């Protein structure tokens, strides 16, 4: 394979030039839930980011695989539409070029069990480069090797971060794997209407770990919780839920493995309302540029309230 090189796009979270708010604005009319998983993989001698985008609307599911080019301004994509009336499309193969190298995408989703836009079991999606399986997603590994006749990668792909857009009224749920071992169920619930003061609850694996009262004053903040005795930093910004028209913007949550420097309570300065412009951007988005700890991945959850 030759020497291992880094592409001009450094393998870090900040290298993915992607604005979730801008992208999702095109999908609001159809309330399209999306999940994007970004992996760091070794392809053709370069470390690259591979983005796997799962989408679901009223009509169908779809899958789009994007691979970073060495050229900073280019991304190579392979899109798969999983229409319910086209059963044959749920298993297949496509090839596409990345910097002059052929990549092969294989998938089998015929028996897949879905939780939202993302499958949870009985499926596989993989990428093959030079007969090496450089990315393997799913739980049907034996079928992958039999179908592709590929060999295992010298270096396993690692999930960099997960980004999810969810539509709901009061409750938003997702799954996350903070340490590459066990998936955890995350549920965000809120009460922002009625005569009572707004409140918010964040639970992981059925246990409420964050409970925010007086949410109108603490709509931005952070808290460190323990998940399987390991610290996870939780950041939130739900300004849009309280001060913007329904559906015009989203609440933002970040779940980042590792301990923080601050106390478990939100800083007072961060909880104050600043200006009248409806924008969910906050300083917590800067966690996109953190240096990934080995074996850990970060979750970005964007919760869109609908009436």
Automatic annotation (TrEMBL):
<dbReference type="InterPro" id="IPR008586">
    <property type="entry name" value="DUF868_pln"/>
</dbReference>
<feature type="region of interest" description="Disordered">
    <location>
        <begin position="254"/>
        <end position="277"/>
    </location>
</feature>
<feature type="region of interest" description="Disordered">
    <location>
        <begin position="1"/>
        <end position="29"/>
    </location>
</feature>
<feature type="compositionally biased region" description="Acidic residues">
    <location>
        <begin position="262"/>
        <end position="272"/>
    </location>
</feature>
<feature type="compositionally biased region" description="Polar residues">
    <location>
        <begin position="16"/>
        <end position="29"/>
    </location>
</feature>
<feature type="compositionally biased region" description="Low complexity">
    <location>
        <begin position="1"/>
        <end position="15"/>
    </location>
</feature>
<protein>
    <submittedName>
        <fullName>DUF868 family protein</fullName>
    </submittedName>
</protein>
<dbReference type="Pfam" id="PF05910">
    <property type="entry name" value="DUF868"/>
</dbReference>
